[in-house]
UniProtKB/TrEMBL annotation:
This is Tetratricopeptide (TPR) repeat protein. It comes from the Bacteria. The keyword Repeat applies. The keyword Repeat applies. InterPro entries: Prenyl_trans_a, TPR-like_helical_dom_sf, TPR_2, TPR_rpt, Ycf3. TPR repeats lie at residues 72-105, 106-139, 140-173, 174-207, 208-241, 242-275. Residues 1-40 form the signal peptide. It comes from Rhizobium tropici. Keywords: Repeat, Signal, TPR repeat. PROSITE patterns: PFTA, TPR, TPR_REGION. Pfam families: TPR_1, TPR_16, TPR_2, TPR_8.
């Protein structure tokens, strides 16, 4: 279940049925839920925007740096653009320079942590989030980022504490509520999960991830109608997510409509051939049958 990833600077954010029918499906539902949580989710990855890393944009940001070479903010902003453009090595170099110029630049530590995470360097990412929080113990972005890392590593209790801390600080970042909701969901505290997902939706109404998350909790409560509405809305917001189509297909499957389930599962597989819940679902309803 993926939330959108944002880099941070000091001044701005740059553009992260019936019960008898339900019981046999519980194991399948759990598989969908867990697999969805492990995909992110955009919590886990930077959404690449090539325009951010375009030669024109980089040249403009470089001219700012050349005019003020001792200003760490310029390197932080250009590092953000490199990161959004997918050039992680250059992004890392700029964040390193920003931190060298200002060792107390906690936003740059958090930005570098996100780059490390996307490079698969999780210990380095955790260390940078820790450094950001040592400098500013009220920095909600670092708690959310570290919470995502903890959740990715299976440290759900630590992740829960970080999300809750960000929420207690009054964060307006929906990822904190979505992340904590996923943990409530795994603990089978579905009412609390739904409350958190609903809050995430209110903060990030254009993000499909909390709709998918909430829909899964509705399914766990046998509320197929609300689940179906959430999955459909997730598709309306972004029709390129395999998870949304597989979730929609699962509702069709529970309703006994194998033809529609098959089409949605197939669409999910077409979008992401490695998305296992869709592959498993297609096998259950009969691919090409």
């Amino acid at each position: 279940m993926t939330t959108s990833v944002k880099f941070r600077t000091s001044n701005l954010s740059l553009p992260v049925s019936k019960r008898a029918a339900v019981l046999p499906a519980l194991a399948i539902l759990a598989a969908i839920s867990l697999s969805g949580c492990q995909t992110a989710t955009t919590d886990n990855v930077i959404q690449i925007d090539k325009a951010q890393g375009s030669s024109e944009n980089i040249a403009s940001l470089t001219s700012v740096i050349n005019a003020n070479p001792q200003d760490p903010e310029g390197y932080n902003v250009r590092g953000t653009a490199y990161g959004r453009g997918g050039d992680f090595n250059r992004a890392l170099g700029d964040f390193n320079q920003a931190i060298q110029l200002n060792p107390k630049f906690y936003q740059a530590y958090a930005n570098r942590a996100l780059i490390y995470r996307n490079m698969g360097k999780l210990p380095e990412a955790v260390a940078d989030y820790n450094a950001a929080l040592q400098i500013n113990s009220n920095y909600d972005v670092a708690y959310i980022g570290r919470g995502n890392l903890y959740r990715q590593s299976g440290r759900d209790n630590d992740a829960f504490n970080d999300y809750s801390k960000a929420i207690s600080l009054g964060t307006t970042d929906g990822r904190a509520y979505n992340g904590r909701g996923v943990i409530y969901q795994k603990r089978n505290q579905q009412d609390k999960a739904i409350d958190d997902f609903s809050k995430a939706i209110s903060l990030s109404p254009n993000s499909p991830e909390p709709y998918n998350s909430r829909g899964i909790s509705y399914l766990a409560q046998n509320d197929d109608d609300n689940a179906f509405a959430d999955f459909n809305h997730a598709i309306e917001l972004n029709n390129k997510l395999a998870e949304s189509w597989a979730n929609q297909a699962f509702v069709y499957e529970r309703k006994g409509d194998k033809a529609k389930a098959r089409r949605s599962y197939q669409h999910a597989v077409n979008l992401d051939p490695n998305y296992q819940p869709a592959r498993d679902g297609l096998a259950r309803v009969g691919a090409g049958a």
